[in-house]
Amino acid sequence: MLAKSFIAAAFAGMAAAQNTGVEVIPVLVGMSPNGTAGTFFSPESITAPVGSMVQFQFMGGNHTVTQAAFSNPCQPLSSTNASAVGFHSDFVPAANNAQTGKVPSYTIQIKDTRPIWAYCAQGRHCQSGMVMVINENTAATPENSLANFKAAAASVEQATVPGPNGGAATGNGGGQTGGNGGNAGNADANTPAAGANLRVPAYLLAAVAGAAALF
Predict the structure, then answer these.
(1) What is the pTM (predicted TM-score) of this model?
(2) What is the pLDDT of residues 144-157, one digit of tens each?
(3) Where are the beta strands (DSSP E) in 32-141?
(4) What is the number of structural domains in the chain?
(5) What CATH number has the domain bearing residue 39?
(6) What distance lies between CA 180 and its chain's CA centroid?
(7) Domain enclosing residue 125, as ranges
């Protein structure tokens, strides 16, 4: 019942966003498409055009959405390229909002169509397959596939959380911890930014209204 109410709130927010003329692409965090809680991004691969927004909706558990390089899964983008501060949602304990019926969300804007890789930095969620890609392009680079990224993530010893001032930290998150990224970098080092962080985690309806005001 709770999952249904969360999904209903998410759809209401999406309808409000569509009325602004901005394309908003939702990704459920911590819930499968059929409403099962777990270590999921749903969907785990999306296509997002330039100018659109990808909204991560935290439906269950205590997760992050953190940008990585394809070549270095489960590690923040800044650990691959110090000049590229990727996005990071901080830990978002969705259960804290369960009684309100509100859905915490984190939204990025897509600046170009180069691939963006992301993972959950909680515990061993990344190693267990909680990773995703925006604008996968296996036509250009066949080896840079979600399947290969997921396989590489499975062998990572420790997932890393971006720390304050662009540093890194390891361990599990119990709440809103870790450093918040600024302008998002791209999937690999030495490339311009593909996405931009519009908001820190916020309730879905507030995020939709605030994001629209930024255009």
Answers:
(1) 0.73
(2) 999 999 999 999 99
(3) 37-42, 45-46, 53-58, 62-63, 66-68, 92-93, 104-110, 116-119, 131-134
(4) 1
(5) 2.60.40.420
(6) 12
(7) 2-213
